Amino acid sequence: MKCALATTASIYGGVWRHVLDLASGLSELDIEVDILGPESILPSLQERSPSLHFQALGTTSRADVFHVHLADTFEPHHGRFIRRVVETGVPAVVTEHLPRTVASDPSIHLTAARRKPGATQWKTLLKRWSLSPAAAVITVSEEDREFLVRRYNLDSSKVWAAPLEIDVTAEPTVVTSPNRFVAVGSVITQKGFDILVEASAFRTTQWTVDVYGNGPHRERLQRRAEELGGAVQFRGFSQDVVGEMRAARGVVIPSRWESGPYVLLEAMANARPVIVSNTDAMPRIVKQAQCGVWFESEDPEALASRLDELVRSPDVTQTGLNGYEAARAMSTKHMASSNAEIYDKVLAR
Question: Do 161 and 155 touch, CB atoms closer than 8 A?
Fold first, then answer.
């Protein structure tokens, strides 16, 4: 079998990491892979993964399955792109990396979010039209699968969940920091770092959080954090996020929506407890692995209480080890096999 993996994502992030990990895993299963992306990013991807085969979007790939990865659930023109693939006689599979967002879920209420009259109905029709030619739709969590089927009334037999998995390569270390936590991600509304900043006003222990990542809200949130005493610091980009995690007491993920973030898996793989919002797949993963705690999304006081709880806990090392053991059961090869099974079902139709 030969598979083409394609995305229009122009910067390296979670979508490209998934595509590269999936390509490597498929190669281990002796599935030939072409990777198609914007020409501007291909040199850096080739340097990152020299054993993989890259080519520019728009070039021809003689594949048995064409697997499109959507970074944006309302990505412009992807419906027409999928149709062009299907017209060649090759079945198209679509992975929705983040189907539930403030743009797609009308139940998410944000002060700054203004929905035009009829926008929900229009987006519903657009999404149904875009995905209708696809032979299968894949999500990275069961929660996302349920959302897609419910939100757009899709045929549930065409929608599959194939969760993110990573390879664990490092040995676990003991938690030594008494009160320092880290958070990682773009400083945007989705990631909920404003909730983290406001939580610092409610702390009853002397915890601190270093946030690694850049984004449009960084300066504003840093000013607000300073007003509240500076317990949260925005450090910008880090070359060694894993090292920062391993030096911390735990990892905070206060996102408003999140399919199955790599930062959660990385925290588990590095034996660090997590504090997550009760959003999408995250509380289920944490509960199953017994690797941390969760709080009610949008509630800074609840987040502060959870951080205080982990500062006082004598069992943080064991909590981190629980996550590590759960992560060790994962592998990119197993993730690839889950996708390959879907390809087989599509080709058997």
Answer: no
